[in-house]
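User: Okay, second chain of the day. Same drill as before: sequence in, structure tokens out.
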Amino acid sequence: MGIFSSKPLPKPKPNPYARRDPPELSEPPPETPRRRPNPPPSPAKHLMAALLRRHASMKPNAAEIPEGEEKEDEAAVGLNKSFGLSKKFASKFEIGEVVGRGHFGYTCSAIAKKGDLKAHKLAVKIIPKSKMTTAVAIEDVRREVKILRALTGHPNVARFHDAFEDSENVYIVMEGGKFTEDHARTIIVQILNIVAFCHLQGVIHRDIKPENFLFSSKEEDSQIKAIDFGLSDVIRPDQQLNEIVGSAYYVAPEVLRRSYGTEADIWSIGVIAYILLCGSRPFWARTESGIFRAVLKASPGFNDDPWPSSSSESKDFVRCLLCKDPGRRISAAQALCHPWLRDHEKVKLQLDVHVFRPMRAYMRSSPLRRAALRALSKVLRADELYYLEKQFGLLSPDANAGITLETIKMALMKSATDAMKESRILDFLEPLNTLGYRKMHRDEFCAAALSVHQMEIVDGWEERARSAYAIFERDGNRAILIQELASELGLSPTVPIHAVLQEHIRHSDGKLTLQGFLRLLHTLQPCSPAKTP
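Assistant: Same drill. Structure tokens below.
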């Protein structure tokens, strides 16, 4: 299941949570519950409705699915659960193993026993009538069958064959297979291309969700386009916004804490990627406050089908986007360089505004701090180097010439809209003005633009840190006084501070220990945005 093929269930009315404090939070379960008797809405509803109108199968208004909260019907026993469908499912199909579970039903493999589909492998979605406890739930199933019939033939929707029922279940027979990683990649790449461009212009979207992206045509290679910027805002480098806006299922944890930047958009893309790859939401609850608790505290699950059979690259990609610490979350430009995406034909490599923040910190650093970063850059992984080298190429057309203030300006001008040219370019250039007098070559750029915070959450960080320290010992470590170390770390030279720093300097030669080296690295990175309780 995925953004184009999941069932069009009704969804709560979109709610921009403007200027609202999150409710009191209590500790939730360690992982978001995945299976509920009443499911969350399908993220594909708006796309299916748009395609339905395009195929002229319904009147324009008929494709719109009513918004609103579901309410339990206490008179469920008296509900009419007859759909007027064929009751010959058992004679035509043989059910196989369960291949996926959702909030409202489950999907099995199947083989046709006779007819035109004989011996063909199919997928059958089974919806128990026992879970249809409201009139709305019953209407959802009717609508799903109706929409699937109308959408048959579109390349981005799984082919619908027929629907059946018996006294216990409704059976929806579809073509076999699932929404593949390749399909998901194609969608996510295009969304990231859009968001990376927005962030470069200083625009934060703040309402990334499937409803705000549509196909430009019904062709198989149709482009995805953003259609709604109603909650977007302009943001300066290092600025933090505090309005709680967006849609509950896609809102980033830092938005609920009222201190966020462009990283919040990346979280929302991570939620979409999770849905595309497994058909369920990573964070779900029946109430708004429950959703908020899950977003703030729970971890997305990767144990249920189809995750065990998904590629390790796809799971790593989603985890990188759904990192709760925005300071460690990858940017849109980094995501486009992730091994799961970077070879896709639709990737548009773009200048990443996030490289300028660590560059500014590097250029304000002392020679000792720069030596520590250069040592760490020697142990970068291949995927980390790939991203940094691509960014270096965008900032320096001639790799041998290096980066200067002028090449940065040219790169920004090339990517900028008219609005950005008027003001935003100066915001980036002013803190880097020392590059007006010297050049920064590839190796130094990799040291200046790397992120310690992102590196330390990757498996194997301890071993890499020790390797970097060994290089630092050989090439950059030197004797240092406690007073100088306190100054390096931006600490006041008090007696308690001096006692703490004793373990960071070796008594034998006055050089930094491994702990001192790591402490020095951490001071080079900007602090994560303050978290308001």
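Residues 35 and 103 are 4 Å apart (CA to CA).

User: Thanks, on to the next one.
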